[in-house]
Design a protein that fits this description.
With 472 residues, the chain is an alpha/beta fold. It has one domain: Alpha/Beta hydrolase fold, catalytic domain (Rossmann fold), CATH 3.40.50. The chain contains 15 helices and 16 strands. The chain starts with a helix and ends in a 5-residue tail after the last helix. It holds the Pfam family Peptidase_S10.
Length: 472
């Protein structure tokens, strides 16, 4: 009898232990992460959701519960741009609770620290790696690996409805879709797709309320045409070149007629002036964005001393070509070591089928670009009454704030709160904002770049006020 009782107690302990770590068959509660000292002071879940026609696509996600009131706070899915960029860009760079310390790499797992600007202080955030081939997401067949703008939209909707089945406690939370950069083509479509699915009676119903977009790629022709006036306004090209470009190209700088020699020559001069500018933030040092980390170096467990010599030996690179920690993009260099570390992948529950992690992997994804203008999605979403926050770092030349203002203005909605500065808590100007009758708020981030990571404190305050329904 005593042996039977001992066995029962042991069995129950095993069951409870398994339940403590597993949310469902492919989800994991992560309590420790390599690079971070001690247990995580927030709730992190990772996992895979099988989607696609035959379940051949495995999309990986990170889910961070709100630090305020997860049962009632909004839930937002965050989509990193690219396409093909890992959602680590959001989790560890832009608006998540952890970030790299930025110490010079010494061969160990790059250290992490808590951030003060995490959007998860006021919202539950689901960071999704989409499409397959991004981050730790993958596909089992070549056909399933193929993706496109519209396929992403359908698969994200499918992912969400499957995820909510396993997380029914969040179904009633106000739901938002967020993203930046290339996600400007995807996020509005996901909002529309969710809405249409709800109307058709797809279950579970998703409590969609609106969306958030940062420096969103919306209309490539429009954005390309505004880069020239942006550069002129920022003093990067001369008055004479700007005027000559306007005359010779007639205000059209995208898909220029090759027979227009004067326009082509002016554009070559323009490209020369901009060639050494870091396009994501024109004031920052122009460093390489990503560095190729050889397989031999990634798998060495004990490189601890004389980092420069060993990096040169195993990478074949001269030490002068390695990124200095003073580069803003140095954290991208660190992320390649962190995300490819076997202990990190084990802690996150990454499946063995996943190969080398790349921050952005579009070159290896068979992807079709189909949405050339996302404005119709915004129109449809506005008609259905969804809230939206569109923000722009005002020193980004990739998607200039002026081009975003232009397509918003073209929607021709009346203004309910006209252009004004919005302030930080210390009474310093954080940027400028305007709100329209279609529940769309536009905001600039003063001194900001292409994504929230360039000015995370301003973006965090902006998000908190907007998600809580307060004026900026």
């Amino acid at each position: 009898m005593r042996n039977d009782l001992s066995f029962l107690v042991l069995f129950l302990l095993i069951i409870f232990s398994i339940h403590d770590h597993l949310v469902d068959a492919s989800s994991l509660l992560v309590k420790y992460l390599p690079g971070f000292e001690g247990p995580l002071p927030f709730e992190l879940e990772t996992g895979y959701v099988s989607i696609g026609e035959s379940g051949d696509v495995e999309l990986f996600y990170y889910f961070v519960k709100s630090e305020r009131n997860p049962k009632n706070d909004p839930l937002m899915i965050w989509l990193t741009g690219g396409p093909g960029c890992s959602s680590i860009c959001g989790l560890l760079f832009a608006n998540g609770p952890l970030a790299f310390k930025g110490d010079e790499y010494n061969g160990t797992v790059p250290p992490l620290e808590l951030t003060s600007f995490s959007w998860t202080k006021v919202a539950n955030i689901l960071y999704l790696e989409s499409p397959a081939g991004s981050g730790y997401s993958y596909a089992r067949t070549r056909r399933a690996f193929e993706s496109s703008d519209t396929k992403q939209i359908y698969q994200i909707d499918q992912f969400l409805r499957s995820w909510f089945v396993d997380h029914p406690e969040f179904i009633s939370n106000p739901f938002y879709v967020g993203g930046d950069s290339f996600s400007g083509k995807i996020v509005p479509g996901v909002v529309q797709q969710i809405s249409l699915g709800n109307e058709k009676g797809l279950t579970p119903l998703i409590n969609i309320q609106g969306y958030v977009l940062g420096n969103p790629l919306t209309d490539k022709n429009l954005e390309s045409n505004y880069i020239v006036s942006f550069a002129h306004g920022m003093g990067l090209i001369s008055d004479e070149l700007f005027e000559s470009l306007e005359r010779s190209c007639e205000g059209q700088f995208f898909n220029v007629d090759p027979s227009n020699a004067r326009c082509s020559n002016n554009l070559q001069t323009f490209d020369h002036c901009m060639s050494e500018i870091y396009s994501e933030h024109i004031l920052l040092r122009n460093c390489e964005v990503d560095y190729i980390i050889p397989e031999t170096l990634q798998t060495l467990p004990n490189i601890r001393t004389n980092r420069r010599r060993e990096l040169k030996e195993f990478s074949g690179n001269d030490s002068s070509s390695l990124p200095p920690p003073s580069c803003f993009t140095y954290k991208y260099f660190l992320s390649a070591f962190w995300a490819n570390d076997e202990n990190v992948r084990k802690a996150l529950g990454v499946k063995k089928e996943v190969g080398k992690w790349n921050r952005c992997n579009i070159q290896n994804i068979p992807y079709t670009f189909e949405i050339f203008n996302a404005v119709p999605y915004h129109v449809n979403n506005s008609r259905k009454g969804f809230r939206s926050l569109i923000y722009s770092g005002d020193h980004d030349s990739m998607v200039p704030f002026s081009s975003t203002q232009a397509w918003i203005r073209a929607l021709n909605y009346s203004i309910v709160d006209d252009w004004r500065p919005w302030m930080m808590s210390n009474n310093q100007v954080a940027g400028y904002t305007r709100t329209y009758a279609n529940k769309m708020t536009f905001a600039t981030i003063k001194g900001g770049g292409h994504t929230a990571e360039y000015n995370p404190d301003q973006c965090s305050l902006m998000f908190r006020r907007w998600i809580d329904g307060e004026p900026l």
